[in-house]
Amino acid sequence: MPNERAIPPLGPSDLATCPATFEREQDLQPGATREAAPTGPRTEDWPDDSIIEVELGGGIRLRTTRAQFVADFSPSSERGTKARPPLPERLTVGAGERGVAHWAVTAYRLLRPGQSIERRLVEIAAGRIELQVSDRLGLRGLSLESEQGLQALDQPAGALDPTRPVLVFLHGTASSTTGSFGELWTPAQTAVRLALHKAYGSNVAAFEHRTLTESPIQNAIALVKALPARTRLHLVSHSRGGLIGELLCRSGVLDQAAPFPEADSNFSNQRINGTNSATSTACFANAPW
Predict the structure, then answer these.
(1) 231 φ, ψ to 5°?
(2) Between 20 and 30 A from 268 (CA), which of 3, 37, 211, 283?
(3) How far apart are CA 21 and CA 114, in angstroms?
(4) Claim: this prediction has a pTM higher than 0.90
């Protein structure tokens, strides 16, 4: 059985693509006491990993964490006592008679990462995870006949007969067909797999799709476009794959009935608006599923 593809970790080259943007949280003037700022948290309340920007004479800017700044530059009264001395107007750098330098400070700023950094990191991580399926997206081959049937995933699905039921596997979040259903191709599940093979023969496929950067609606539309017209569709789903399956099933309701009846809409609205679980459960129980 093919193994799940390893997810490459984020590295320096990936982080280098993140725009180094920061948003200003609070300004403090050198020499001002901590209470001098009219708004915003005191420096004592800033988390240790807060980013502090120190602007030195000549326009030089130093960015460091609050914890590191306290360790490097604050007087002893800042470290472990309740005293709140003014922010230093000068920073002393180096040690010993020949290594000491005094830098005049013109401004202090508390920064927070801009949205673009966070968004970019999420995009990179999602892309790494979806590498498992990125080179074989869409309707893929699958065989239930032998334990090597997952190897067919490397090829697009063959011709499917729409006059007979077509069995399609829908994997879960951040996974693949191998990750969600691979156990079906182990010796322990031979009887189950062969029973399915007897029922469906070669009319079987897997739908490999993105689950972090595309919605279930986009996935469902892509699957419909990949299937022959008027396909008699049977589904096996895992986790998020069930959302795709439900969308497909609801789109096929008879007599032009609404795919999402009022009871379903009420249930969803109540969950979104935080209605108590007892009422939501009642709506769910009355839904025509």
Answers:
(1) -70, 135
(2) 211
(3) 5
(4) no
